[in-house]
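Hi support team,

I've been running sequence recovery on a batch of backbones for a student project. Most finish fine, but this one hangs at about 90% for roughly twenty minutes before it completes. I'm not sure whether the input is malformed or the queue is just slow. I've pasted the C-alpha coordinates below so you can try to reproduce it. Let me know if you need the job ID as well.

Thanks,
M.K.
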Protein backbone atom coordinates (compact mmCIF):
# COMPACT_ATOMS: atom_id res chain seq x y z
CA UNK A 1 0.00 0.00 0.00
CA UNK A 2 2.99 2.29 0.44
CA UNK A 3 3.41 2.58 -3.34
CA UNK A 4 -0.25 3.55 -3.72
CA UNK A 5 0.10 6.20 -1.00
CA UNK A 6 3.24 7.55 -2.69
CA UNK A 7 1.47 7.58 -6.07
CA UNK A 8 -1.56 9.46 -4.79
CA UNK A 9 0.65 11.93 -2.91
CA UNK A 10 2.64 12.50 -6.09
CA UNK A 11 -0.51 13.52 -8.00
CA UNK A 12 -1.83 15.64 -5.11
CA UNK A 13 1.30 17.76 -5.59
CA UNK A 14 1.86 17.51 -9.34
CA UNK A 15 -1.63 17.83 -10.84
CA UNK A 16 -2.18 21.42 -9.63
CA UNK A 17 1.18 22.35 -11.19
CA UNK A 18 0.14 20.74 -14.48
CA UNK A 19 -3.22 22.50 -14.57
CA UNK A 20 -1.71 25.85 -13.64
CA UNK A 21 0.62 25.57 -16.66
CA UNK A 22 -2.34 25.19 -19.07
CA UNK A 23 -4.38 27.88 -20.71
CA UNK A 24 -8.08 28.32 -19.96
CA UNK A 25 -8.82 27.15 -23.51
CA UNK A 26 -6.78 23.98 -23.00
CA UNK A 27 -8.54 23.02 -19.76
CA UNK A 28 -12.07 23.96 -20.87
CA UNK A 29 -12.17 22.78 -24.46
CA UNK A 30 -14.09 19.58 -25.17
CA UNK A 31 -12.43 17.59 -27.99
CA UNK A 32 -15.86 16.34 -29.08
CA UNK A 33 -19.36 17.26 -27.85
CA UNK A 34 -19.65 13.94 -25.97
CA UNK A 35 -16.12 14.05 -24.49
CA UNK A 36 -15.09 15.71 -21.24
CA UNK A 37 -12.78 18.70 -21.06
CA UNK A 38 -9.61 18.45 -18.96
CA UNK A 39 -11.46 20.38 -16.26
CA UNK A 40 -14.29 17.83 -16.33
CA UNK A 41 -11.80 14.95 -16.25
CA UNK A 42 -10.37 16.39 -13.03
CA UNK A 43 -13.94 16.62 -11.74
CA UNK A 44 -14.47 12.98 -12.68
CA UNK A 45 -11.41 12.10 -10.61
CA UNK A 46 -13.02 13.95 -7.69
CA UNK A 47 -16.22 11.94 -8.18
CA UNK A 48 -14.14 8.76 -8.22
CA UNK A 49 -12.58 9.86 -4.94
CA UNK A 50 -15.99 10.53 -3.39
CA UNK A 51 -17.31 7.11 -4.38
CA UNK A 52 -14.16 5.23 -3.40
CA UNK A 53 -13.87 6.82 0.04
CA UNK A 54 -17.18 5.17 0.90
CA UNK A 55 -16.06 1.86 -0.59
CA UNK A 56 -12.69 1.83 1.18
CA UNK A 57 -14.43 2.42 4.51
CA UNK A 58 -17.43 0.09 4.14
CA UNK A 59 -15.43 -2.89 2.84
CA UNK A 60 -13.60 -2.87 6.17
CA UNK A 61 -16.67 -3.41 8.34
CA UNK A 62 -19.71 -4.55 6.33
CA UNK A 63 -20.62 -8.19 5.93
CA UNK A 64 -18.64 -9.93 3.23
CA UNK A 65 -18.91 -9.85 0.32
CA UNK A 66 -19.39 -6.07 0.05
CA UNK A 67 -21.17 -5.20 -3.22
CA UNK A 68 -19.63 -2.18 -4.93
CA UNK A 69 -22.34 0.13 -6.25
CA UNK A 70 -21.64 1.71 -9.61
CA UNK A 71 -22.52 5.30 -10.40
CA UNK A 72 -23.39 7.17 -13.59
CA UNK A 73 -20.12 9.00 -14.25
CA UNK A 74 -21.49 11.27 -16.98
CA UNK A 75 -24.40 12.36 -14.81
CA UNK A 76 -22.11 13.07 -11.85
CA UNK A 77 -19.85 15.28 -14.01
CA UNK A 78 -22.87 17.08 -15.50
CA UNK A 79 -24.69 17.61 -12.18
CA UNK A 80 -21.53 18.90 -10.48
CA UNK A 81 -21.16 21.34 -13.40
CA UNK A 82 -17.36 21.12 -13.32
CA UNK A 83 -17.14 22.79 -16.73
CA UNK A 84 -18.39 26.11 -15.33
CA UNK A 85 -16.67 25.97 -11.93
CA UNK A 86 -13.42 27.78 -11.19
CA UNK A 87 -10.43 25.50 -11.71
CA UNK A 88 -8.98 26.23 -8.27
CA UNK A 89 -12.15 24.88 -6.60
CA UNK A 90 -11.87 21.58 -8.50
CA UNK A 91 -8.13 21.33 -7.80
CA UNK A 92 -8.72 21.95 -4.08
CA UNK A 93 -11.47 19.32 -4.03
CA UNK A 94 -9.17 16.81 -5.77
CA UNK A 95 -6.40 17.46 -3.25
CA UNK A 96 -8.68 17.29 -0.20
CA UNK A 97 -10.41 14.07 -1.29
CA UNK A 98 -7.14 12.36 -2.08
CA UNK A 99 -5.54 13.46 1.17
CA UNK A 100 -8.49 11.77 2.90
CA UNK A 101 -7.98 8.64 0.81
CA UNK A 102 -4.29 8.57 1.79
CA UNK A 103 -5.33 8.86 5.44
CA UNK A 104 -7.82 6.00 5.08
CA UNK A 105 -5.36 3.75 3.24
CA UNK A 106 -2.58 4.36 5.75
CA UNK A 107 -4.88 3.31 8.58
CA UNK A 108 -6.30 0.10 7.11
CA UNK A 109 -5.22 -2.89 9.21
CA UNK A 110 -3.32 -5.42 7.08
CA UNK A 111 -5.87 -8.15 7.74
CA UNK A 112 -8.64 -5.96 6.24
CA UNK A 113 -6.82 -5.66 2.88
CA UNK A 114 -7.98 -9.17 1.99
CA UNK A 115 -11.67 -8.36 2.58
CA UNK A 116 -13.65 -9.15 -0.54
CA UNK A 117 -15.95 -7.00 -2.61
CA UNK A 118 -18.11 -7.82 -5.61
CA UNK A 119 -17.26 -5.37 -8.41
CA UNK A 120 -20.02 -6.63 -10.71
CA UNK A 121 -20.65 -9.72 -12.79
CA UNK A 122 -19.97 -11.69 -9.60
CA UNK A 123 -16.25 -10.79 -9.78
CA UNK A 124 -14.75 -10.80 -6.30
CA UNK A 125 -11.72 -8.62 -5.63
CA UNK A 126 -9.87 -7.69 -2.45
CA UNK A 127 -9.84 -4.28 -0.83
CA UNK A 128 -6.14 -4.14 -1.67
CA UNK A 129 -6.94 -4.70 -5.36
CA UNK A 130 -9.64 -2.00 -5.27
CA UNK A 131 -7.23 0.55 -3.78
CA UNK A 132 -4.57 -0.25 -6.37
CA UNK A 133 -7.20 -0.02 -9.11
CA UNK A 134 -8.18 3.44 -7.83
CA UNK A 135 -4.64 4.73 -8.46
CA UNK A 136 -4.44 2.94 -11.83
CA UNK A 137 -7.74 4.55 -12.88
CA UNK A 138 -6.49 7.98 -11.81
CA UNK A 139 -3.20 7.55 -13.68
CA UNK A 140 -5.01 6.29 -16.78
CA UNK A 141 -6.91 9.58 -17.03
CA UNK A 142 -3.85 11.66 -16.14
CA UNK A 143 -1.49 10.05 -18.66
CA UNK A 144 -3.97 9.51 -21.50
CA UNK A 145 -6.01 12.71 -21.29
CA UNK A 146 -4.80 15.39 -18.88
CA UNK A 147 -1.09 15.40 -19.75
CA UNK A 148 -1.65 15.00 -23.49
CA UNK A 149 -0.98 18.42 -24.97
CA UNK A 150 -3.15 17.98 -28.04
CA UNK A 151 -5.99 16.13 -26.26
CA UNK A 152 -8.45 18.93 -26.89
CA UNK A 153 -6.97 21.01 -29.68
Amino acid sequence: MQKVVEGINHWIKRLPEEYNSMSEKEISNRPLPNKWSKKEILGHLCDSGINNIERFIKIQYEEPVYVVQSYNQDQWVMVHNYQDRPLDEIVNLFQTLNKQIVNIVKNIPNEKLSNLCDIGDNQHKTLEWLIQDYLEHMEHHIHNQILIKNYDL
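--
Follow-up from support: It reproduced on our side and the slowdown came from queue contention, not your input. Residues 38-61 form the longest helix (24 residues). No action needed from you.
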